[in-house]
Specification:
about 350 residues, 6-stranded mixed sheet, alpha+beta, Immunoglobulin-like, 3 helices, single chain, 4-stranded antiparallel sheet
Length: about 350
Amino acid sequence: MPVLHTLRRAGAVLLLAAAALLAAPASPAAAAAAAAADEPGWTAEPAAGTAAAVRPYFYLAGAPGTVLEDRLALVNTTDRERTVTLRGADAYNTADGALAVRPATAAAPATPGAGSWISFGTATTVTVPPRTRAVVPFTLTVPPASPPGDHPAAVVATEAGHEVAVRVHLRVGGPALAALTVEDVAVRGRGRSAVIAYTLVNRGNVALTPALRIRADSLVGDAPAPPRARTLPVELLPGQRVELTEPWPGAPALDRVRVTLTVTAPGGARAEAGGSRWLVPGGLPGWTGAGLLALGATTAAALYLVRGRRPDPGPAPDAPPAAGPTTPAPHHELTGAAR
């Protein structure tokens, strides 16, 4: 029996050790190996110019009807060759303001964007040998009737399910207009989870980096300070709309608030809009308090109106004349005798 008990204890210890090993986080080396496995093994970036400067994206500018040229660099960092497919794509803002490119499988838009103006000629598929850097030229042909302003696009490289997009910032010559609107302003949530929601729309023809300032007013007390003025981490492309929120952890618990948003951007763009809402705690007590608050506000308004509409009594009537000696009226005695 003692031997059996010892074996059982040894088995339990081995099971616990195995469980600990399975639950332990992966070592840094293992994590690095896993991350490396997710990498495509190649890179795509703008080829360095004559000054050998690193460019984060392509910047092209020209008048309508112009043919512009640039080069894409593909670098194979692995020990096997890579076959990469190249294409142009339109760029746009997602609903939360991030930049994205139109998928190759998406239906063609009614009005083709700048992505369709990019051509790699016969080099739409490129084979890059191991440990090699290949430079691929491409052209961007601006249609003669293109409107002025920014036309966002990207060069997209794809291989074995991995996709790398390099942005193309294209400016077509002509008048530039910076214009935007702020819409659908609302306060959502309550307490520390309250947020100010709004929509920004780029009504101009150039990309904008907007700055936001918020003012809050309350019906009863002093509204706690909303988020401070700041430049938004969003590049708003022409014709795009994004839906954003600003946290407001200091929102009042029981009050009617109105928030006014002022948005500006370089180039003279400016817009302002507001929204209001009753903020009440959850549950019956909160609604009861809100009802009493609304009743008090209504009563105060009614008293103000009643006082304002009270009729004017007008000037005081003349005082009666002062008393003085008077002549008594004649007294006729009735005797019943005929005269």
